[in-house]
TrEMBL record:
GO molecular function list: metal ion binding; molybdopterin molybdotransferase activity
Residues annotated as domain MoaB/Mog: 178-316
Metabolic or biological pathway: Cofactor biosynthesis; molybdopterin biosynthesis
Cofactor or coenzyme needed: Mg(2+)
Cross-referenced CDD domains: MoeA
Similarity comment text for this entry: Belongs to the MoeA family.
Record keywords: Magnesium, Metal-binding, Molybdenum, Molybdenum cofactor biosynthesis, Transferase
Protein name per its UniProtKB record: Molybdopterin molybdenumtransferase
UniProt cross-references to InterPro entries, sorted A to Z: MoaB/Mog-like_dom_sf, MoaB/Mog_dom, MoeA-like, MoeA_C_domain_IV, MoeA_C_domain_IV_sf, MoeA_linker/N, MoeA_linker/N_sf
Species of provenance: Albimonas pacifica
Length: 400
């Protein structure tokens, strides 16, 4: 059994980035991988803009009690065309162009309006803040500035691209990940299972996980526990960029995935990782160099392995920096017992603690319990042979 860090390194070395790009409309680009730098088609803000509601003035004339005559108004979408001279002010609103001559916005909380009959006047109050409250032209970005590639586009990126006045972007094609569920006991959701059958859940959870990571998951028909059925399954996923099998990875008489994969031409890289759940994980290369990840059948094992290994592999397929999921420091809300010899990724819930992030390891850790996995929002990581730990002790967590 190899350690989890080595398993990830070996999996990533099996993966090469896919090629081929396409145009994606902005509204469909979130989660896609930007393939070429996206260049701004305009400067933002395109003019010096007010950051506050108030009065645009010349800052040199501002002191407590100073008076200004209001000569016009600049609003967002409609600027004041004239110039602000000494002793003058232009009523201005957030986002509006700052008029010529002005270099400071007196916020309206610091201005007292004086109605003296001869036109509107204001007087600066006794306490004035120091800010100019002006956003310079191009302070956010300038025409031609680039959002660099590659990167997976976040909703924040989409806002930026829209502000850049782009309607579509060049993105990498989605890496195709085939999901092959295996087992005589499985039926698809919605079918009527026989008396000894269950519903295939892993494939659906993986599908969701992969889609959220920008991959194109493909569910292959469930393969049965025969060499013929598994051979047909491997043949049917020959066009995938990465093949994931589910189940049949362990040592039972009907665990044929390893053998069938070998007959399909798999060059095995490793089998078995020193982790819990997920021990029977396997990885290798199929003909054509396509990576194969064989996930254990137990539903929680499959999902935990997918979080730890499959998602980084999808990043590598997309040509992005790929790394183990980020671990955050937390403190146990309740003690946990001593760990066994495998690194344990215990299903857990995050809670606000007295000093930072707290984590509660859930009571039932059997790797078949999807209800417990659904309740979890993190994996608490227990090192091999870690002694029992008390409430308050430091532990690392992987948010799900
Ligand atoms: N004697 C030993 N038995 C087992 C060992 C071992 O070392 N020695 N390892 C155990 C561990 S750890 C795991 S994990 C499981 C993994 O076994 P397989 O990968 O061969 O998985 P299966 O036997 O096919 O199935 C296990 C379990 O998961 C259910 N399953 C399978 N596929 C799906 C699916 N798509 N959706 C939902 N559930 C699925 C299957 O019905 C079984 O209940 O082996 C232990 N045994
Ligand atoms: O290690 Mo297996 O993956 O727990 O149940």
């Amino acid at each position: 059994m190899i350690p989890t860090a080595e398993a990830l390194t070996r999996i990533l070395s099996l993966v090469s980035p896919v090629t081929g790009t396409e145009r994606a409309p902005l509204l469909e680009a979130a989660g896609r991988v930007l393939a070429a730098p996206a260049r701004a088609r305009r400067t933002q803000p395109p003019f010096a803009a007010s950051a506050m509601d108030g009065y645009a003035i010349r800052g040199e004339g501002l002191r407590p009690g100073a008076e200004f005559r209001v000569i016009g108004e600049s609003q967002a979408g409609l600027r004041f065309a004239g110039e602000v001279g000494p002793g003058q002010a232009v009523r201005i609103f957030t986002g509006a162009p700052v008029p010529q001559g002005a270099d400071r916005v007196l916020i309206q909380e610091d201005a007292e309006r004086l109605e003296d009959g001869g036109g509107e006047r204001i007087r600066a109050r006794e306490t004035l803040d120091a800010g100019s409250h002006i956003r310079p032209a191009g302070g956010d970005f300038r025409e031609g500035d680039a959002l660099p590639a590659p990167r997976r586009l976040t909703p924040r990126d989409i806002s930026l691209l829209a502000a850049m006045n782009l309607t579509e972007v060049e993105v990498l094609r989605r890496p195709v990940v085939a999901i092959v569920a295996t087992g005589d006991e499985l039926v698809e959701p919605g079918e009527t299972p026989g008396p000894d059958q269950i519903v295939s859940s892993n494939s659906y959870g993986l599908h969701a996980l992969l889609a959220a990571r920008g991959a194109a998951p493909r569910l292959a028909p469930i393969a049965r526990d025969t060499m013929e059925s598994l051979a047909a399954a491997f043949a049917s996923v020959a066009d995938a960029d990465l093949v994931v099998t589910l189940g049949g990875a362990s040592v039972g008489d009907h665990d044929l995935v390893g053998r069938a994969a070998a007959e399909a031409g798999l060059s095995l890289d490793f089998w078995k990782v020193n982790m819990r759940p997920g021990k029977p994980l396997m990885a290798g290369r199929l003909p054509g160099g396509r990576p194969l990840l064989g996930l254990p059948g137990n539903p929680v094992s499959a999902m935990v392995c997918a979080q730890l290994f499959l998602l980084p592999a999808v990043d590598a397929l997309a040509g992005l920096p790929a790394a183990a999921p980020r671990r955050l420091p937390a403190r146990l809300v309740e003690g946990v017992g001593a760990n066994g010899p495998r690194e344990h990724f215990a299903r857990a819930r995050l809670e606000p603690g007295p000093d930072g992030l707290g984590v509660r390891v859930l009571g039932r850790q059997d790797s078949s319990l999807l209800s417990v996995l659904a309740e979890a929002d993190a994996l608490a990581v227990l090192a091999p042979n870690a002694p029992a730990m008390a409430a308050g002790e430091a532990i690392e967590v992987i948010p799900l």
